[in-house]
Amino acid sequence: MNYSRQRDSILQYLRSTKSHPTADTIYQNILTENPNISLGTVYRNLTQLTKLGEIQKLTFFDGPDRFDAAADPHYHFVCTKCGSIFDLDLDLYSLSHINLLASHNFSGMVEGHMTYFYGVCQQCMEKEENKNSLKNQ
Questions:
Q1: What is the pLDDT of residues 12-34, one digit of tens each?
Q2: Would you give the DSSP letter of residue 92?
Q3: 120 and 80 Cβ atoms separated by less than 8 Å
Q4: Taking the C-alpha atoms of 99, 61, 14 and 42 in order, what is their torsion angle to the nearest 10 degrees?
Q5: Closest Cα to residue 25, out of 77, 75, 64?
């Protein structure tokens, strides 16, 4: 693949954040450095970087795709209150039995899995606690 300053800007931005941004967020953040870039160019480069295995695309049922510069297999936590996405520090081998469980009743060959954990993040829990403590005063 030929070098592209725009693609490099996208990759550098993704490597600088842990927030798992959307394509629009990436576009907004690299626009000052690349004033002539279009949102379409950002999408095309994200697709290309995903196909090359440079980044991960995280797809959810109820929102836009998110992108992660950490292309190695890992798990994510999604906050059901604020929508934030966090990397989970889990040993990949601790959940490797999922592939075996899935293979048990499946005639094909399971080669991997992608798992998202859902719940409420610490910041949202603290906000709720603060809100409740103000009500009780």
A1: 999 999 999 999 999 999 999 99
A2: G
A3: yes
A4: 120
A5: 64
